[in-house]
Amino acid sequence: MKEITKKKIRITDTTLRDAHQSLWATRMRTDDILKIASEIDDAGFYSLECWGGATFDVCMRFLRENPWERLRQIKKACPKTPLQMLLRGQNILGYKHYPDDIVERFVALACENGMDIFRVFDALNDPRNLEVAIASVKKYGGHAQGTICYTTSPVHTVENYIKLAKEQEAMGIDSLAIKDMAGILTPGAARELVTALVKALPEMPIQIHSHMTSGMASAMYMAGAEAGAGCVDCAISTMSSFSSQPPTESIVSILESEGFDTGLDQVKLAKINNYFKELKKKRQPASSSKVEAVDAGVLVHAIPGGMISNLRSQLAQQDALDRLDEVLAELPNARADLGYPPLVTPTSQIVGVQSVLNVLSGNRYSMVTDETKKYAAGYYGRTPAPIDPKLRKKLCGGLKAIDCRPADLLKPGLAAAADELPPNTIQAEEDILSYALFPEVALGYFKWRNTDPAKREPIPADVEEASQATVAAAPVAGAAKASASAEAKVDGTPVLAPLNGTFYRSDAPGKPNMASDGATVKAGDAVCVVEAMKLFNPIKAPAGGKITFVAEHGKAVTKGQVVAVIA
User: Fold this and answer.
1) Along the chain (567 residues), what's the average pLDDT of each consecutive run of 10 residues?
2) Which of 61, 170, 179, 195 is buried deepest, with most CB atoms within 10 A?
3) Contacts for 65-71 with beta carbons within 8 Å, 24 or more apart?
């Protein structure tokens, strides 16, 4: 009998990045990874997604690790399998656009330290925000994977997705990913989209990424594979499902039963899974045990699982968790108002926080974050659908709207970042990049790193402690400061914090003051900010006069606390 040739399909393992970002708040340690890295490297995966996304920030902020060193160590431990990262285009790994020189140098150092495949995406699917990142990956020898951020709306059609794919093909991408971050891509829609992509770009390898939030991803992967997709993203079973990816072992069985060859060995996969079963006992947050296995609601509101967990955390920080249902009802309306952006970092944060503010304020768009203003004005890119002109004008305030590529307005930033760093801080060039991306977080890590090990603050033993330490700090410190403010007894009109958060007398760390202490301000002027829910919320002067600040820059404040007085 003639032997039937099986069709090859590859599997990317997301256990070391997206899986623990989705399930464990990104708290997997480098040592956790290195103890199982050689077995994962030997399993036969197409690639290992192990860097990017939230891992860079969390390494420094919570784990007190150097993310660059993590990359080097994983590369050393996994010489056989290509390493892969998630790169947010012009946003790199942050929530804003960075200058082109920082984008290029970041990619160069990532390649130099062992990164092979870069999945480059833009939250708005604006190809202008992908150009420099993709060109840099190609320049420094990496594999540039373009991305379609999948969502549904009146303007997100197969025809428009094909147009986007062709624009990225013209940029020189090596492969294309369909990024279904909310788990809402149905098997039928996947079959239609993949078939159209294969027809329009016959030489382009297609990869599919999804989450099990809705429970559909496994069936969708099968439909996509049958239509011509050559690779899918999975996580080892212990680290799969819920808001993570489909389980590797199950997908291997499904695909191979249908005549596909994955090249993976179930015995080796079982050994890897046993390791994570034990690690789960230490790393899984207790709160995740309360999460439902399937959230059918995502089929209605299309909110990624990780975003819902963020909303819960953000509302808890504002003592308003009981209003989650109101926020979930508001979010689709806000998304429509803002031009139907796909809900993925940073648009998920912008739309999500704005929805929270719309609910908490009781008056939609009466409180608008700096990021929402910049988004509406075009500083994040072109929205999928136009924003109503009247609403756009209201959202922008006095900010001038733009139509150009946002990064064209940014001055080179690498040299300036190096100049801003305190003496004896930099140990390597990578530190400059870390600071350029996350100034306050990097400085905190550098300070910790340069402290005598015997005098360093302890690192929480598990994710729950780390999360609670971060959230609990604001109310406690804020309460103390509120008391101090009340005792100041400065006559005049009080300026109150609108939210729990961190007080800054500037619109971003390292930037000039919005209002100097003792300066004369006019009613309606933005005089300071409260950073809450990862975004900056300007505080406007309720009256004109001389302003005196009573809250301390960089310290936690609580909602209703007096941060300044105008007399």
Assistant:
1) 73 97 92 98 98 95 96 98 98 94 98 98 98 98 98 96 98 98 96 98 98 95 98 98 95 97 97 97 77 78 71 81 91 95 90 92 90 95 97 93 96 96 93 96 94 88 46 35 44 87 71 79 88 77 92 88 93
2) 179
3) 65/29, 65/30, 66/430, 66/445, 66/449, 67/434, 68/109, 68/113, 68/428, 68/430, 68/434, 69/30, 70/30, 70/33, 71/110, 71/113, 71/114, 71/115
69: tokens are 């060193």
**Given CA atoms 431, 442, 91, 31 in this order, what sign does their dihedral have?**
positive
Number of residues assigned to the chain = 567
Determine the 3-state secondary structure of 223 from DSSP. helix
411's CB contacts (< 8 A; 6+ apart) are 99
pTM for this entry: 0.87
What are the two backbone dihedrals, phi and then psi, of residue 493, each rounded to the nearest 5 degrees?
A: -85, 120
| Pairwise CA distance, residues 470 & 452, whole Å | 23
What phi, psi does 288 have (nearest 5°)?
A: -70, -20
Q: What distance in Å separates the CA atoms of residue 182 and residue 249, rounded to the nearest whole number?
A: 22
> Of the candidates 358, 305, 314, 311, which has an alpha carbon nearest to the alpha carbon of residue 336?
358
Find out whether the peptide bond into 346 is cis, omega within 30 degrees of 0: yes
| Token pair in block for residue 132 | 């420099």
Question: Nearest-5° angle of CA 42, CA 47, CA 50?
Answer: 95
